[in-house]
Amino acid sequence: MKLYIAVGSAMLLMMTMFIILFVAFYQNRQVRHQLALNELREAYRKELMEATFNGQEVERRRLARDLHDEIGTMLSVTKLSLNQLERKLSDTAENSLQVQKTRSLLDETMSNVRRISRNLVPTTLERFGLLAAIEELTEKATGPDVSVLLESPNTLERIAPAQELMFYRIAQELINNAIKHAGATQVEVQFVYLDDSVRMSVLDNGRGFDYDEAVKDRRSGLGLRNIESRLSVVDGHVTFDVAPGRGSRIHVQTRLHTAPSEEIVSSSGNGERQWQRLN
């Protein structure tokens, strides 16, 4: 009887152990399956975001080409026609004044078309690189009441084209937000190397904002969400050091494909020390 009880107990114990091992194996398999599924979802999300931003850039190029080739050409032809018409009109003060006003409007419209076309497609970025494009951007944003400065190493190397475009678009968004929405009079864009990463920081003396409230707003928070989406495509991240009533400090960072040279690290070291002083 005791033997039967012992054998039964052993079999029950073995069945219990088998059930426990089976449950543990099943749960582990479920966890691995869920992790794999999450990785697939993240990869799909990144591919979708990348395709979205690539589509936006293609559309920007198409619009810029149409503005330059069609609208710009039509305006130039209209100006030539106006010049010919001026020679046929009677030389009176009223006619001359009207022609001058029309020519001035045409010149202003042509200038705006060229400006919009350049903003849609940053040709300076393609031809001369990120620093030249950001420098041009800061110069255009500087005005009588606003000072926009660029602090960076002499060169930025080993940045992929997608990363350069990402930094440029984010700089456009942040500078515009600082001037238009935060009322900043001083804005500074900084680039520094940090080991195998590059960081762009945009600092301003504006009135700041509440990040949580801004993100909730579908209109005002769209730009902030776009920044985070752009960075997710290139495995970057953004830190918003913001609060109502004080200047904003926004840091955008992404990894480089290869480490920068010693010369660049040396030149960026001063930039990093200056950044620490600003903080």
UniProtKB/TrEMBL annotation:
Reaction catalysed by this enzyme: ATP + protein L-histidine = ADP + protein N-phospho-L-histidine
UniProt-listed Enzyme Commission number(s): 2.7.13.3
Pfam families associated with the record: HATPase_c, HisKA_3
InterPro entries, per database record: HATPase_C_sf, HATPase_dom, His_kinase_dom, Sensor_HK_TwoCompSys, Sig_transdc_His_kin_sub3_dim/P
Ranges of residues in domain Histidine kinase: 62-258
Annotated segments matching region Disordered: 257-279
UniProt keyword list: ATP-binding, Kinase, Membrane, Nucleotide-binding, Phosphoprotein, Transferase, Transmembrane, Transmembrane helix, Two-component regulatory system
Polar residues: compositionally biased ranges: 264-279
Protein name in the entry: histidine kinase
